Amino acid sequence: MKLLISAYACAPNRGSDHAVGWNWATEAHRLGHEIWALVSPAHRESIKRACDENPDLGGIRWIFPEVKGWPLKQAIEPKWERTYNLLWQRAAVPHARELHRQVGFDLIHHLTWAGIRAPTFLGALTAPLVIGPIGGGETSPPSLRDRIGLKGRILESIRDLSNATIAINPIVRDGLARASIIFVSTTDTQDLFEGAFRDKTHVFTQLGLPELPSDHPRRSPSGPPQFLYAGRLLYWKGVHIAIQAFGEVVRQIPDARFTIVGSGPERSRLEDDVRHNKLLGSVEFIPQLPQNALFELYRNHDLFLFPSLHDSGGFVVLEALSHGLPVVCLDLGGPRDMVTPSSGVVVKHNGQNSAQLATMMAGQICRLLASPEKLAVLSAGAVARAQDFILAKRIKRFYDRAMEFMPAAYSTEAFHGECSDQTDVPEIAQGGDLGAYAKPRQLIQFLSLHTNTMC
Length: 455
What we know:
By secondary structure, this protein is of the alpha/beta class. The protein has helices at residues 16-30, 44-53, 81-103, 149-164, 170-178, 187-190, 195-199, 239-252, 267-276, 291-299, 315-322, 333-338, 354-369, 372-386, 391-404, 412-415, 440-451, and strands spanning 2-7, 34-38, 61-63, 107-112, 129-134, 181-184, 201-203, 226-230, 257-261, 283-286, 303-306, 327-330, 344-347. A seven-stranded parallel sheet has the order 3-2-1-4-5-6-7, with helices on both faces.
């Protein structure tokens, strides 16, 4: 099948959306599909190096649309990235239109960003459009907003409003309306849709692994218990809950240790939490690590703590499972569906506040640590659970499912014909550069959209 994959975020040896874009495009290629991939120019050099090192990837055609007047440095995301992404999506349309005229794609797939508030304008082409899997419909329970600060509460309220108005946002709605099928990461996101939109949604997580890691020995559980968190340090990642839960664990197991890997705006506040809970000698902060170094930490810890308040997926959760590291998460968002009773613990929030939830989490952790046999069973179960996310099988299932939703109107002659010279995209997106927002009405439209995409 001839596939055009729009993967703004796509880079080797990265996590999150970048891993989704890279793993998906390269694995679809290995499955025998002909792949053309639209990617942010910030990742041109890293992709070229990876393809030079792996000749098997030479058949993928990489295209790097640029936003006029906004050059990017390699491997560095722009400061105002959501604004840049919006403009990049428009800049990608002429490239896609010309490629479709030459190639005649069987499917166009908008992959990343994988968020419901990230628009695509590729539905204006004559090939059927597949969107997703997308997330973002998840929300934090009001009872757990007590410790996220004023700014966090304001942003969560904006997110709530954004989710409630997705269906009437003209820019986002246009891409969703033109899509033949919309894959969503969680039922939370599916529940935002009604009517015809909901009829063409299908729940399917975007996460997957090219293969399971090599069989490396895990640490012996005989030493002091070691806990790990990896990810961005953002208020909604719930690291403050993990720290408070760990503090209660330390009261029962004084030699326990907690390693927090990542960087972000919440670090100073989290360090204050550590001092307040008298955990300075028990908690270690480590900046972002190379992937191989993080993999080593997975193998040398006992439990992975991931109390995120509204993650659509959580790629680090899947990585931890694949290394045999049981996961403790909340019954919120994508991790709730990834972690099973045989691979970790899903803590129910039950309307509790942060302190109450931390106490419940600590109790479940201590019960696990009291049974080394149970931990060993969960470790084996984690690896078994990760096997359900092998990418080759998932991608095949994804495109098989997508083809079931292709409307009869897309005959072979229809979508292998040439595109029209004029691509019908929303007025806000016309221009493809910063000048597109020079007129007051267009600027107001842009600000309205950006408010709906900021959380």
